[in-house]
Amino acid sequence: MPIVPHVGRRSVRIRLALGIMYALLGLGGLTMVWPFAITLTQSLSNQYEFERYDAWPRYLFDRFERYAKYLAERYDDAPYFAHFRAAYGAPPHWGMFRDLAYDPRGAREALALFGREKTDDWPRLVARYDDYVAFLEQYDLSNSQLLFNRKNIKRYQQFVLDRYGTRHLRETGRERRSLSRAEYEGGALELMGRVRRTNYRDLLSVRYGVRVPFDLQMWIPVASENYADYLDFMRRRPAAERIPATRHFLWTNYLLGQIRDPADLEWPDGNPGYSTVYDIPFHLPADAPRVLHDLKHNFLRDAWPVRLVRIAPEEEAAFREFVRDRYPSLQAYNLVAEISYERWDDIPFDTEAPVGDNVLRQTQWRDFVLSLPRERWELLAPETEYQRFLLAKYGHVAAIEERYGCAIPDIRELRLPVAESDYVYYVLNRDRFLRGFLIENFATAIEYMAVRGRAFFNTVVLIVFSMLAALTINPMAAYALSRFRPRQTYQMLLLFLATMAFPPMVAAIPSFLLLRDLGLLNTYAALILPSIANGYSIFLLKGFFDSLPQELYEAASLDGATEGRMFLVISLPLIKPILAVIALNTFIASYGGFMWALIVCQKQEMWTISVWMFQFYQQVGSTEPYLATAGMVLASLPTLLVFVFCQKLILRGIVIPTMK
């Protein structure tokens, strides 16, 4: 019957009291659901919105949020953010994508391209995108780098696995179907390690191996297996996913460290100057402030990458003189270069940065180029190559203006349409990106947990055998104490209950030492054996066995039933509720047990899900916390499902012991 009868509910005071009670209960439920909703939303996030602590993913309902999230995926590594800032003219104080989330108004202003597919500009945006992609298809890969770093790293790992795995099969004469996944992957990694002279722990530890330091003046790429694999992989990816080191990026990145506000510069009367650093052209007008001309001179002297320089063939004589001044004799040069030239004129001369693995050749060319006056440099800027590409396609500037629908006052300052390309690529693939936002974090976590590791399998084995042991050994021990009543029954029960008086970690030390002496560490036995019997469960089961009518056993005994048959056929069916509660408690203890599993099974192939979650968080928690959160959500699902579908058992486990 209800606590408050129907007659009593007619009172206003009673209704008010009930309303307050329901409101408090609802508020209490909300305080439990809200944190989980935030955690679930974070598991579907990336670096853009992770620290916003939303209770629902905004990008599911807001198209702009979805676009900003896409950009965070596209420029998802710290070195790329400077390229994003230069391409979009973003405020200099933005240092990462989470700054966009904290400045929504500034983000909408910076990402002004958003929504243009519904205007007349869309065909012109597509035209720019098509030309830009065609240009990237034939542009030098050594001055380009892949975007979507997190996604492409996974693709690269599979790429090198297929490449070196195929070579491994060819060298060993074996077939793929004759090898397990672990054997195939191990052979590929061993071969790749020999070729690259590097040790790889597993496939997840493989990275590009080569990062293009776009803004480093002295760097020249050195040919290697790593670099060749990286270029080949980049060549196979869509050109729209590449970004070159643009002159605009290098120039504005340098200016940001030198100028706080261009409005502070002194311009001649009638010249308004530039509102932001991103508006300052590389080809400065003659009336530009002297400080800008000085900064450009210093930029070319101290910051322009030497790999993007071409020198004239007429510099060959000066180059040979430069090399001769460095060495006392040709024999000394041959000794250093480990080569045998008969004349100084045999030393090769390059008009561009030499490509290969001859570091000495690259070093002496770089030093010679840096010693030249900057007026004798030809800058190999991507913008220049892009402008030549467009002029070759359209013939003259007027045709380009008509095609793009914009004026081009100075063709030399025509920039690469990076932002436009980003947006068109998003619109053409937005459904695919949305699906990726919803599943990629979980897919990565599952791959780490179940595909690349054995955490899922180990946890299943632990739970199954722990539950089997708990449902056989504990009932058998309790049945024996109840039926045969040995003289030391109460002393045994007291001993069983005494185990509850000490923290589990107190017993962990002698248990660990015993397992170590028995040689059982890093085995399933180490996980299962210490928990196969539980003193409290035996005490609880004995009470239930004692409550069963003795007449049942007497009748069964008269019918010739053995003790084992009475245990299986009569006793166990009558105590199903408490067995279900014990099974549930065993599942929760086995699934959530972390410290013991970490202590006795430290090898990676023996990690359980709880240990794997700890290690996974240590690995990606600081750089990609949304992946760690996705792993936590996945790890919490079994416990959540058990709670949802076994609420009656949980309540019975609370009520029945109290009634007993």
Question: TL;DR?
Answer:
The chain is mainly α and 660 residues long. It has helices spanning 12-43, 63-74, 78-88, 98-102, 104-110, 121-138, 149-172, 181-196, 225-236, 247-256, 290-302, 316-326, 330-337, 359-371, 382-394, 397-404, 418-428, 430-451, 455-470, 473-484, 489-498, 504-518, 524-528, 535-547, 550-558, 563-574, 576-592, 595-600, 609-620, 625-645, 647-659; strands at residues 144-146, 242-244, 309-310, 378-379.
Account of the protein in words:
The chain has 660 residues and is mainly α. The chain has a domain at 446-659: MetI-like (MetI-like fold). The chain is 62% helix and 2% strand. The chain has helices at 12-43, 63-74, 78-88, 98-102, 104-110, 121-138, 149-172, 181-196, 225-236, 247-256, 290-302, 316-326, 330-337, 359-371, 382-394, 397-404, 418-428, 430-451, 455-470, 473-484, 489-498, 504-518, 524-528, 535-547, 550-558, 563-574, 576-592, 595-600, 609-620, 625-645, 647-659; strands at residues 144-146, 242-244, 309-310, 378-379. A two-stranded antiparallel sheet has the order 1-2. Strands 3-4 form a two-stranded antiparallel sheet. It is elongated and about 115 Å long. The mean pLDDT is 86.
